[in-house]
């Protein structure tokens, strides 16, 4: 076998080409440097074999009298030009890609196409000894015909070049192109591919993306804007609505403090008034959570202020209820009380107020009363490893002090008023007989207490330090 290759160099050249293709497939994509070295080595050996045999790719094959040998030599000379073009594109890719990243792949592909075109023309001119001017003239006419036929595709290609050069978006950016929103998963020579929030893939031609309005939610990379619009009754005082929505903003923890969130009155008419809450979150994954929380908080704070969302059933809601009675009606714990029980219960609720920053219930104190938040935002603070941190925020309708009522225990959390707060206080002497008589309310309050205790244990549990693995070199350094 070895003597066959040495006696017939053309077979050796063909074997080198096949070996190069095999090694290119075997070496994984992670070994790009090895691929480049193998390609350079194989091209050098292939060139050495051809030139040693007298096959100069700049000239026609030297055996015109031997037709089979002449055709084989001509094929290898043409293969040399293609081999050289491929090696050059691999080398350019290895130099270019670390600098320009994935977005430069389109430019690399186009540059590779130009290199292969030059190699084909050179092979036609030097190896086949064809008139290049005639070939170029013919190829120019063909190019015009092909260009007219592929006008849309070429528009996508050149638009892709513009998008990769100006970089209005990159891989993994969340963008909106002409109303289609999603995460960029690929940008190639023809189209941009987005993964939408529903998990589907949207393919947008580059020519359309270059002309459309593009909104990049990932620039700047650390903030993502959200907006919530609410339609309210035109009879509600705007100042009352704005103050309630500002309290809702303060109750939404995912919202960033800077840039500060805001409330604005967008439009007003006889049929309704539109208000908009706008703010920012730190990640795209928090947008949905923050929007849902804002809608819920806005509803609760507006309801606490006596303002209802605009609805066709708005007139059916009872409007003659007192604030304690309305609070019991909307409470998830006490809503199962009968109407007469709610009336009696509301008469035993005492209104108390707290200024912003005042302590409502300190950690470790056993509460002898239950508090129901009527309006405002209450901050819950826990301690972990001696450091206090805000674990959550509470709003209208939520209760404080259930541990002291149920089991004479305290909670490890500090409750203080983040804004001006109004709460209704129910004494334990009055509430305890009610809990003993109404097992459904008792069970609901126990479930709430269990959930809060488990959450507090999870948040205050110290995360064990990850042991750093020490290698042999680190062990040697420690011995010095």
Q: Can you characterise this structure?
A:
- It is a single chain.
- The chain has about 475 residues and is α+β, with helices and mostly antiparallel strands.
- The protein is built from 16 helices and 16 strands.
- The strands form 4 sheets. A 5-stranded antiparallel beta sheet has the order 4-3-2-1-5. It has a 4-stranded antiparallel beta sheet with strand order 9-16-11-14. The protein has a 4-stranded antiparallel beta sheet with strand order 10-15-12-13.
- Strand 7 and strand 8 form a beta hairpin.
- The N terminus is likely disordered.
Helical run tally:
16
Tell me the helix content: 40-55%
Assembly annotation: single chain
Distance between the termini: 57 Å
Strand order, main sheet: write it out: 4-3-2-1-5
**Secondary structure category:** alpha+beta
What is the alpha-carbon Rg in Å? 37 Å
């Amino acid at each position: 076998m070895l003597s066959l290759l040495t006696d017939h160099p053309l077979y050796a050249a063909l074997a080198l080409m096949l070996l190069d293709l095999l090694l290119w497939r075997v070496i994984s994509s992670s070994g790009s440097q090895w691929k480049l070295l193998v390609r350079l080595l194989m091209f050098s050996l292939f060139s050495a074999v051809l030139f040693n045999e007298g096959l100069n790719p700049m000239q026609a094959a030297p055996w015109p009298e031997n037709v089979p040998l002449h055709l084989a030599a001509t094929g290898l000379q043409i293969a040399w030009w293609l081999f050289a073009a491929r090696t050059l594109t691999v080398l350019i890719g290895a130099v270019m890609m670390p600098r320009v990243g994935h977005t430069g792949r389109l430019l690399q592909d186009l540059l590779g196409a130009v290199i292969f075109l030059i190699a084909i023309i050179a092979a036609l001119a030097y190896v086949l000894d064809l008139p290049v001017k005639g070939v170029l003239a013919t190829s120019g006419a063909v190019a015009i015909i092909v260009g007219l036929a592929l006008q849309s595709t070429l528009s996508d290609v050149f638009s892709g070049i513009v998008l990769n050069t100006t970089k209005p978006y990159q891989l993994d950016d969340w963008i909106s192109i002409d109303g289609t929103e999603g995460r960029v998963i690929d940008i190639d020579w023809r189209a941009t591919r987005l993964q939408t929030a529903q998990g589907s893939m949207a393919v947008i031609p580059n020519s359309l993306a270059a002309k459309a309005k593009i909104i990049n939610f990932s620039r700047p990379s650390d903030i993502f804007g959200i907006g919530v619009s609410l339609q309210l009754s035109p009879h509600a005082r705007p100042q009352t609505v704005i103050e309630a929505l500002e309290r809702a903003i303060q109750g939404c923890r995912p919202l960033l403090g800077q840039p500060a969130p805001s409330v604005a009155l967008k439009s007003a008419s006889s049929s309704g008034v539109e208000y908009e809450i706008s703010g920012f979150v730190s990640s795209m994954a928090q947008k949905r959570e923050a929007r849902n929380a804002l809608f819920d908080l806005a509803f609760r704070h507006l309801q606490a202020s006596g303002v209802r969302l605009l609805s066709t059933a708005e007139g059916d809601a009872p409007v003659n209820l007192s604030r304690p009675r309305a609070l019991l009606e909307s409470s998830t714990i006490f809503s199962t009380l009968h109407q007469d029980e709610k009336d009696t219960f509301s008469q035993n609720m005492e209104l108390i107020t707290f200024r912003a920053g005042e302590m409502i219930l300190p950690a470790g104190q056993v509460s002898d009363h239950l508090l129901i938040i009527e309006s405002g935002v209450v901050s819950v603070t826990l301690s972990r490893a001696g450091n206090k941190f805000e674990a959550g925020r509470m709003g209208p309708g939520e209760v404080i002090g259930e541990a002291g009522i149920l089991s004479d225990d305290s909670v490890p959390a500090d409750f203080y008023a983040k804004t001006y707060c109004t709460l209704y206080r129910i004494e334990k002497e009055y509430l305890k007989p009610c809990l003993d008589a109404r097992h459904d309310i008792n069970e609901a309050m126990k479930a709430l207490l269990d959930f809060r205790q488990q959450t507090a244990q999870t948040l205050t549990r110290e995360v064990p330090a990850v042991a750093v693995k020490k290698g042999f070199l680190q062990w040697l350094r420690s011995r010095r």
